[in-house]
Model the fold of this input.
Amino acid sequence: MYGAWGDQRCWPLALPALAPWWALFLQACYSTVSFLGIPPPLAGSLAASYIGGSLNFVGVGRALNLPGLLFSAATTADNLLTAIWLTTTLSLPSLLARVYPRRDEGEAVKVIPLPTTSAIAPLDLAILLSLAVATLVLSTALHQFWPLIPTVVWLTTLSLALAQFKWTRYLRGTSALGILGLNLFFTVIGAGTHVPSLMSVGLEMILFTTVIVLTHGLVTFSLGALLKLDVELVALASQAAIGGPTTAIAQATGRHQPQLMGVGITLGVVGYAIANYMGLALAQALSWIGLG
Done:
């Protein structure tokens, strides 16, 4: 009935997606005014990254015209913190076992794995590629017609609209193409990671991203303990928010919880869907209150 969520008790797992956004907002306001001088486009881009993933960071960063050097430095810091946080969330469930209530097998949240298909049909592949190209072209055209709305917002909105049609869910090869695209994207991002670019912005960039992730972790795991949630699910939700669905899969695998992969993928994809909107909204809000 609940698909990948499996149980109504899973709904609080969406909270980690909101925690980094508000933490970013408060920290960006403070740091911009008092010490770090973080510009709103950077705050918005990192908000998108820690709600969705690197895909959203790149999309929002480009939409907000984030300067090249700052973009490269933020990408490096983001990748570094994501790797560190994956290591942390793999360890936290064991370390926090005494704080979180222990669940019996009957009380554990039951989840239903997402259905997967490995077959790729030539016709379906052609349709999927055509839809991707058409969506990109239409998004570019709509941006030219209405320049106030970035291309990435049109692209996200049109993609979400297409996903609501039932016939798109039966096209074979969607998962394979998605994984291929993600792998290619992360390869390019990894190749573009340039540690020396941190030297020019140095401590401020590392401090900013560290405060974001630590605030997220404190809020998420505190709420998880308060709501008496399963610590494995809380760690998975945290990783889905910070790293996205790919690192959520790594979290489930590393913790020997393969039945949680469906939840991790679902949370990560939801983050991808909303992160562009929230990142752009945060950057605009900071500009409106005079921090731009």
Summary: The mean pLDDT is 76. The first helix runs from residue 15 to 34. The chain has twelve helices and no strands. The two ends are 46 Å apart (CA to CA).
